[in-house]
């Protein structure tokens, strides 16, 4: 890891990290000043003193919910900093879990982390007036807020209900009472952050742009919509409760008012990949098990080989990071539903029930691409244009990718067809791992039933050191 060292005093977490800038009504002056000593919370003490809490996981939104339900005195006058109240546990209506993943670490969470059930993904453009210092300040605030929300805390110590009644709350509040739900928040930098359309180096980082970070090329059959593509920054929020994921994106967006603009966003449900051997393989909207051959966190050495940028790869600031390729892929559900079971299986090269390759065995048996068809003819049992054949590492110089996609359904079009599909997310050490496979899929039998309508690529910096911020290795302050 190549983190720029930082000191406690330089990077002391503080509510100030969340306060508004003059062009930003998201943050009023710190409400803690109004609250008085009686209102001080364990969180406040931790923040003021710069000492990390020994057990930050104790302070949960759920704890606060219990206190509210019990009518805890003082909250109505903005007394108690919400997140400190750890008693009176109420269960979540959203079905979330108490799982937490650390925000700080060598790699960002949300990549090899076991894929959660829900996604809210957002792409932002940095506003023309935003300076480098303001961008760094935003990344600092984002990291601080993310480090709290991923532990089930409000966005700041005063949070949703602990601040001044005369100022907008720091936290929007819709996650009050919900457990952490395994929330992970992953940040990325698009090619246009380094140089804009006119070639301008807006933030003095053009020289540090990874040579591999170029907009994805046009692929055969693409029907890309600009409004669903690209973006200077991306944020992937995954959780086991949709409201927790949406709360995270909403509050991060709010922190960026005046500095960034939401370009597009995507909700997802029903993860379409497993990233851990502890997880059952889920199904996509075509009804097939998806993620069987995905990279799993438990595969020794594979993430270093295929997912994490190594120090020797360069640039130095990306060591421990990754690249994220995103594709919004519409699935033509109604056409697919008229295809026979045999042809559906032929298209993927796996059976629909168990997900086993058509060459035989069980779900996790490696496909045999030379096994002959049942009639004993020349044709192999796994079609030459089957999806798993074309996407398999044997067909792609050994290259793999960590898939982390989600189903989406967004109503229907004017012909009464579901606007549904796969929001495909793949993490790779080198974007060419995705590009080569996507080119190989040009003859995929599946193409008759899908349309790629959105695209994007982002450099995913390494994780932040405790108390630091994501992107510190790039900006160096
Ligand atoms: C460029 C990469 C890929 C795109 C785009 C893609 C789209 C896509 N895939 C499915 C469903 C399945 N994919 C499966 C396997 C699979 N897919 C890719 C890559 C892309 N898929 C890879 C690398 C693999 C693994 C190949 C291997 O190593 O065997 C499967 C089989 C089960 C599994 O291993 O996950 C399914 C099912 C859809 C529906 C889709 C677009 C909408
Ligand atoms: Fe696939």
Automatic annotation (TrEMBL):
Binds 1 heme b (iron(II)-protoporphyrin IX) group non-covalently per subunit. One of its GO terms (biological process) is iron import into cell. One of its GO terms (cellular component) is cytosol. Its EC number is 1.11.1.-. It comes from the Bacteria. PANTHER family: DEFERROCHELATASE, DEFERROCHELATASE/PEROXIDASE. Belongs to the DyP-type peroxidase family. This is Deferrochelatase.
């Amino acid at each position: 890891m190549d983190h720029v060292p930082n000191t406690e005093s330089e990077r002391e977490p503080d509510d100030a990290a969340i306060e508004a800038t003059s062009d930003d009504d998201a943050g009023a002056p710190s409400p803690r000043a109004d609250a008085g000593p009686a209102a001080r919370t364990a969180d406040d003490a931790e923040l003021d003193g710069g000492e990390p809490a020994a057990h930050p996981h104790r302070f949960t939104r759920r704890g606060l919910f219990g206190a509210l339900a019990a009518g805890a005195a003082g909250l109505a006058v903005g007394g108690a900093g919400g997140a400190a109240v750890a008693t009176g546990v109420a269960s979540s209506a959203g079905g979330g879990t108490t799982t937490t993943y650390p925000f700080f670490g060598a790699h960002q969470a949300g990549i090899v982390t076991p894929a959660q059930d829900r996604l809210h993904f957002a792409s932002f453009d940095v506003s023309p007036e935003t300076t480098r210092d303001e961008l760094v300040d935003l990344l600092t605030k984002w990291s601080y807020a993310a480090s709290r929300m991923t532990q089930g805390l409000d966005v700041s110590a005063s949070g949703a209900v602990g601040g001044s009644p005369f100022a907008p709350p720091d936290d929007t509040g819709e996650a009050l009472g919900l457990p952490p739900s395994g929330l992970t928040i992953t940040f990325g930098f698009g090619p246009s952050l380094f140089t804009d359309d006119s070639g301008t180096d807006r933030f003095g980082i053009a020289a540090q742009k990874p040579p591999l970070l170029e907009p994805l090329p046009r692929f055969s059959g693409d029907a890309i919509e600009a409004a669903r593509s690209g973006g200077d920054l991306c944020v992937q929020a995954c959780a086991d409760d949709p409201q927790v994921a949406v709360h995270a994106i909403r509050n991060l967006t709010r922190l960026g008012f005046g500095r960034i603009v939401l370009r597009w966003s995507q909700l997802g449900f029903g993860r379409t990949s497993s990233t851990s051997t502890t997880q059952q393989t889920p199904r996509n909207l075509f009804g097939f098990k998806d993620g069987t051959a995905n990279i799993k966190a438990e595969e020794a050495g594979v993430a270093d080989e295929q997912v994490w940028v190594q120090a020797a790869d360069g640039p130095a600031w990306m060591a421990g990071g990754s690249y994220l390729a995103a594709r919004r892929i519409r699935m033509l559900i109604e056409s697919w539903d008229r295809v026979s079971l045999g042809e559906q299986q032929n298209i993927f090269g796996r059976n629909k029930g168990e997900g086993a390759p058509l060459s035989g065995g069980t779900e996790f048996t490696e496909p045999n691409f030379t096994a002959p068809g049942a009639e004993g003819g020349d044709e192999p049992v796994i079609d030459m244009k089957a999806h798993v054949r074309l996407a398999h590492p044997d067909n792609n110089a050994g290259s793999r990718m960590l898939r982390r996609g989600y189903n989406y359904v967004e109503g229907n079009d004017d012909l009464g067809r579901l606007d549904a599909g796969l929001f495909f997310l793949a993490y790779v050490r080198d974007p060419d791992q995705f590009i080569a496979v996507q080119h190989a899929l040009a003859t995929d039998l599946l193409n008759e039933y899908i349309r790629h309508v959105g695209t994007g690529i982002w450099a995913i910096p390494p994780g932040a050191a405790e108390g630091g911020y994501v992107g510190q290795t790039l900006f160096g302050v």
